[in-house]
Specification:
With 655 residues, this protein is α+β, with helices and mostly antiparallel strands. The chain is built from 14 helices and 32 strands. The chain folds into three domains: 122 residues, Sandwich (Immunoglobulin-like); 314 residues, Glycosidases (TIM Barrel, Alpha-Beta Barrel), CATH 3.20.20; 115 residues, Immunoglobulin-like (Sandwich). α10 packs across α11 and α13 runs parallel beside α14.
Length: 655
């Protein structure tokens, strides 16, 4: 190694692990993988200086395999983050793909000039974060209430100093906990270039603008196409082609120069509120397998992340599931071969792997709006609870209609996306309840509210992990846009001004979550078998039609009853839970359901219903009349002897 600038700087041999920047006593260790190179130069800058103050050239004596490393003693008086760095080899400069923080992209959506593009560099960060007082929740998979959000979009509409930042997310911890949420899933927060996206339709845009080490400015863009590139859309969602996988997005921080610290503070605040933090991770197809492992281990170790949703069919999820460093981390993906995985690693007592796909979304949407022939499919989704594997059940996701729009629009309205109607799915399985778009008529508004309540109950009464999309709990709308990927504006942001109007619905969501949490039978950690393996007189789960114990799979049937026996769900050490009879009437007319009789259980009471006309309280009849398009949850209760003989009342009555 040799110094080209500032020959007074003290150097020593570096270590090849870990890659990136790390503290090494009084020195800072720099390690970078550059396959095929024989010489790599480290360039160190004072903050945003345009010229390097320290230049260290590493040769083959500083190489371990493809990794070049050196330890540099930086001036002691330099504040944390006061140094920036990049590398140069064969005349090309590039940013360390393992950098822990990126400088130069502090403002979201800003397209950089040629001069500004040269200032996109890694930041030297080595100071440890103080996690003192943190309480990690360790929520069992079966008890999770998941809430998906976009860090910027979640709070950007609030229009305060911290809007759209990690700090603003931390400030919402108490709100989320009060709702009953105990886990959040963050859309991509690893540093990416939002000004370009894969598949951009601007003709002539070269492929190298998406290169892993591209700085995000105009420095390499030929003048003849510069104008087209400036008009390219902003990638608001963050599903990009390349990421700095160890750096949190600086523009999501109130103080971008300390984005890493601000994010850790947010994680700590959420943890102390009893909320786990999971990250959605996009893994580009050309990403080295070792980098994937390094990155996920890093986020667990440095940021105390509790789990990941990994996107990309090329990702070796079995490798991640078998990694000992990720042994207590939740992993979500579209599907798992658990038989193969548990041959390589011991199956945990509580599942840490979960299936995340649109199966529940599609079947639930179709059933709830009254499509034919959906009772059997929906019943299977509702009771699905595979051994050793969690299932994430959601009716809305970032890609598609919000819950309010699902029952306000029949077709997508993506007019502002600039795609001429070619973007977004045409298969939404939505229903506008009789009129397209907002409507002030009480009949329409009441029906839409009931449909949203049905959707919430479908999720909260299902055995899988329910997932809410941010803002759905009070009726956030995107105006019918079902693909707001480039809408960094009020369309894509959660509209908190609607929260007051949606207070009634929010209270219902909170009540549904509380009911689920209070009863293990609604989120049984044990796989349901559909049999009475305890000899209690009823199976753990059974499917019914309007007549008890008689399921109806006919193509025109839109009625369903699901009985969950509390004898198969533990409460405390020796106790058993109440039983629940879940009734779904998706007809457009009122229907009468017979109530099953359980051995040792006197009767049922209405615990919760999507229609306020079904009164909460004990039933004294053997049938219940359920209004059109309504879900009712009945809970087993003791009935006084005087009320046991005549059970002909069809509506729930208060005790």
């Amino acid at each position: 190694m040799r110094l080209a600038i500032d020959c007074k700087t003290e150097l020593k041999k570096g270590t090849p692990e870990p890659l990136g920047v790390s503290a090494a006593g009084a020195f800072v260790n720099f390690a970078v993988s550059v396959p095929g190179a024989t010489e790599v130069t480290l360039l160190l800058y004072r903050s945003a200086a345009t010229e390097p103050e320290i230049s260290v050239t590493m040769d083959e004596t500083d190489r371990f395999g493809a990794v070049f490393c050196v330890a540099v003693k930086l001036p002691a008086e330099t504040p944390e983050g006061g140094w920036q760095y990049e590398y140069e080899t064969k005349g090309e400069r590039f940013v360390d793909p393992y950098t822990r923080l990126l400088a130069g992209r502090e403002r979201f959506g800003k397209r950089l000039t040629q001069a500004a593009g040269k200032l996109v560099r890694g930041v030297v960060r080595t100071q440890a974060f103080r996690w003192n007082g943190e309480v990690r929740p360790h929520i069992p998979m079966s008890e999770m209430i998941l809430y998906k959000l976009h860090v910027r979009g979640f709070t950007k509409e609030l229009k305060n100093a911290n809007a759209g930042t990690y700090a603003a997310l931390a400030a919402k911890a108490d709100y989320l906990a009060g709702l009953g949420v105990n886990a959040v899933l963050l859309m991509p927060i690893m540093e990416y270039n939002e000004c370009y996206r894969e598949g951009d339709r601007a003709e002539g845009v070269p492929t190298f603008v998406s290169s892993p080490f591209y700085r995000g400015g105009a420095s390499r863009i030929p003048e003849e196409i510069a104008e087209k590139v400036r008009d390219a859309k902003v990638n608001f969602w963050g599903y990009a082609k390349h990421y700095y996988m160890f750096a949190p997005k600086a523009s999501y921080a109130h103080v971008p120069a300390a984005a890493d610290t601000e994010l850790k503070q947010a994680v700590k605040k959420l943890h102390n509120a009893g909320i786990e933090v999971l990250l959605e991770v996009m893994i580009p197809a050309d990403t080295n397998r070792s980098m994937v492992l390094d990155a996920l281990r890093f986020w667990v170790r440095e940021y105390h992340i509790d789990g990941f949703r990994c996107n990309g069919a090329h990702v070796d999820m079995a490798m991640l599931a078998a990694d000992p460093y990720l042994a207590d981390v939740k992993l979500l993906c579209d599907g798992w071969d658990t038989a193969a995985i548990y041959r390589m690693t011991a199956e945990p007592e509580s599942p840490l792997l979960a299936e995340y796909n649109d199966g529940f979304l599609v079947d639930a949407r179709k059933f709830l709006k009254g499509d034919e022939g959906m009772t059997r499919a929906f019943a299977g989704r509702l009771s699905k609870n595979a051994a050793g594997l969690g299932t994430v059940n959601y009716i809305t996701d970032h890609n598609g209609f919000t819950l309010a729009d699902l029952y306000m629009y029949d077709v997508k309205h993506n007019d502002d996306n600039g795609e001429h109607g070619r973007d977004g799915s045409d298969y939404n399985f939505s229903w506008n309840c009789g009129v397209e778009g907002p409507d002030k008529r009480k009949k329409i508004r009441d029906l839409r509210l009931r449909m949203r309540k049905n959707a919430i109950l479908a999720m909260m009464l299902s055995q899988g992990v329910p997932m809410l999309l941010a803002g759905d709990e009070f009726g956030n709308s995107q105006g019918g846009n079902n693909n707001a990927y480039n809408q960094d504006n009020p369309t894509g942001w959660v509209n908190w001004s609607q929260a007051k109007k949606g207070a009634e619905f929010t209270a219902f969501v909170r009540e549904a979550i509380a009911l689920r949490k209070a009863h293990p039978v609604l989120h049984n950690p044990v796989a349901l078998r559909g049999s009475d393996y305890l000899g209690s007189g009823a199976p753990d789960v059974s499917v019914h039609g309007k007549d008890a114990w008689r399921p109806d799979d006919g193509p025109y049937n839109r009625c369903l009853g699901i009985l969950l026996s509390g004898d198969f769900a533990k409460v405390g050490r020796d106790g058993r839970d109440d039983s629940f009879y879940l009734i779904f009437n998706m007809y457009w007319e009122e229907q009468t359901f017979a109530i099953p009789v359980l051995p040792g259980r006197d009767g049922f009471a209405v615990a919760l219903s999507s229609d306020p006309g079904v009164a909460v309280g004990t039933l004294t009849g053997d049938t219940i009349s359920v209004p059109a398009r309504t879900v009712v949850a009945l809970r087993s209760v003791a009935v006084p002897k005087a009320e046991r003989k005549s059970r002909k009342v069809t509506r729930g009555t208060k005790e």
